[in-house]
Amino acid sequence: MSRKVAGPEIEQLIQLLARLPGLGPRSSRRAVLAMIRRREMLLEPLSLALDDVAQNVRECPECGNIATGELCGICASPRGSATEICVVETVADLWAMERGGAFSGRYHVLGGVLSALDAVGPEALRIPELIARADDGAASEVILALNATIDGQTTAHYIAEQLEPLDISVTSLAKGVPVGGELDYLDDGTIGAALLARRAF
Ligand SMILES: [Zn+2]
Fold it and tell me: How far is the CA of 82 from the centre of ligand 1 (A)?
């Protein structure tokens, strides 16, 4: 049986960090050592920041983005246009679109896509909320920025059908999004180009 190098608290920290995407046990150990070496500069501020986020993080009731206030930073901002709503699958996709810097409207995070295989129906996603937002009169265009997977496109068609009775233009990103590709993995320029070249859905 191997001996534990550090105390149980540190072992637990290493194990928790190792569960994060992109980190394995090896980089987790390196990260923990780096934090402990820089206790005041890194470990203590990080601990406070984690605690703060853990206490305050919630879902933006308007768009589904992550928020720490009543609304997320985008919905709370007076900048940008409220007439365009860009529909994305995940918060990571929203952040990717926003990094692209080509879109100045609002977002709507579905929280996934319809999936017969995984029994995900419309009510499990934020689709009813989207229809309600689109119907409240402020929006003139809904841009579907869903991934080019089969489930993503099935979901896009379903949403377009639901929006059909409303006097609202429904568009989708141009074919810049590769099949099976996820927005989060696209470079920022590609997202911007796909947005500019969007077409009626
Ligand atoms: Zn929001």
Answer: 11
65, 94 Cβ separation under 8 angstroms: yes
Question: DSSP characters for 32-72?
Answer: HHHHHHTIIIIIHHHHHHHHHHHHH-EE-TTT--EESSSS-
Q: How far apart are CA 46 and CA 34, in angstroms?
A: 12
Instruction: State in Å: Cα 143 to ligand 1 middle.
Output: 16
Q: pLDDT tens-digit profile of 154-198?
A: 999 999 999 999 989 999 987 645 545 567 777 777 777 778 778
Gap from CA of 104 to ligand 1 centroid (Å): 13
Q: How confident is the model over 24-48, as pLDDT tens digits? A: 999 999 999 999 999 999 999 999 9
How wide is the angle at C-alpha 70 spanned by C-alphas 73 and 109, nearest 5°?
60
Q: How far is C-alpha 131 from the chain's CA centre?
A: 19
Residue type for 20, please?
L
Distance 34 CA to ligand 1 centre (A): 35
Ligand 1 centroid from CA 28, angstroms:
32
Quote the ligand 1 centre to 73 CA distance (angstroms). 7
